[in-house]
Amino acid sequence: MTHPGEIETEFGVPIPGRILPEAQWARTALKRWPPPPLDWDALFGRSAPVVVDLGCGNGRYTLLSALARPELNHFGLDLLPVVIRYATRRANQRGLHNVRFAVKDAQSFMAEYVPEASLAEVHLYHPQPYHDPRKAGLRLVTPGFLSLVHRALSAGGLFVTQTDNPDYWAYMSKILPCFFTFNEHEGPWPDAPEGRTRREILARSRGLRVFRGHGRRRDDLSASQARELASSLPPPTFRSRGPWCELDELE
Fold first, then answer.
1. Which three-class secondary structure state does DSSP give residue 226?
2. What is the number of other CB atoms lying within 10 angstroms of the CB of residue 1?
3. Cα separation of 215 and 95, whole Å?
4. Alpha helices (H) along 69-165
5. Which has the least CB within 10 A, 108, 162, 166, 189?
6. pLDDT per 10-residue tile (average), the chain, 251 residues
7. Would you put residue 117 in left (φ > 0), alpha (ψ -120 to 50) or beta?
8. What is the pLDDT of residue 1?
9. Residue 81, phi then psi, degrees to nearest 5
């Protein structure tokens, strides 16, 4: 049971925000999807820049950002209903009216539901690397997917990503500059020195290196040019091996 004023922790690291009295709770769950594309202003009941957290897990980063930047709208999604239930409960209890959470896969969400040039930021933390080479086709970060992110971002929009898988990072670091003015970020994020996500906290506790980067949308590419470019770039067919595989199995 949780109580007003309580600070929750996970692996010894505080979860952003405090639990408020129930009268101050919000409703952050999107339980029924409207016909695409989404109308962000209608969804949030106000007009504000939108930050999307793809594969948000239990919502740690979305909570952190929504608390720190109340002037922005935040939308988190994950394919697993159980983690969205955790994320929704925590956002509700913190009174975060600038947050919505929903169950959805990132690929169809970006392809079908996000209007062109409607997002200020897209965050993608620890996409599943799928170590079995027979499942390489399920990897999210492909040139086609990145062209969807490029299309969804407004001019100069921000894309942020990280992984603890060096094989995935080697691929991403070659492909991402095709769509974004991409830069690697050394060390932890300053707003979350112990980790922006549950996965990051776990990976660092096991001594794994976390690779981080961010970049702005390349505005010299139109959406059609980005799609054409994507068709000429290689898919993520790398072989993934190493100590991080065990952590993926536990996750």
1. helix
2. 3
3. 31
4. 81-93, 106-108, 143-152
5. 108
6. 80 95 97 96 98 98 98 98 97 98 98 98 96 88 98 98 96 97 97 97 95 98 96 91 55 50
7. left
8. 60
9. -60, -35
Please state, in angstroms and rounded to a whole number, the distance separating the CA atoms of residues 134 and 138: 9
Within 8 A by CB and 6+ apart from 191, the residues are 64, 68
So what's the pLDDT on residue 13?
A: 96
Residue 186, pLDDT score: 96
DSSP state letters, 30-45? --SPPSSSP-HHHHHT
Contacts of residue 110, defined as CB under 8 A and 6 or more positions apart, other chains included, come to 54, 145, 148, 149, 152
Task: Answer positive or negative: Cα dihedral of 164, 178, 102, 190.
Answer: positive
> For residue 45, which amino acid is it?
G
Q: Beta strands 180-185 and 153-163: pairing type?
A: unpaired
Amino acid at 203: A
Helix (H, G, I), strand (E, B) or coil at 28: coil
Kindly write down the DSSP assignment for every residue of 147-190, as one continuous string: HHHHHHEEEEEEEEEEES-HHHHHHHHHHGGGTEEEEEE-SS-T
Helices (H) and strands (E) in the chain, counts: 9, 9
d(CA 191, CA 137): 34
* Token reading at 41: 């202003």
Closest CA to 115 of 143, 72, 157: 157
From the list 47, 29, 150, 10, the residue with the least C-alpha distance to 93 is: 29
pTM of the model: 0.94
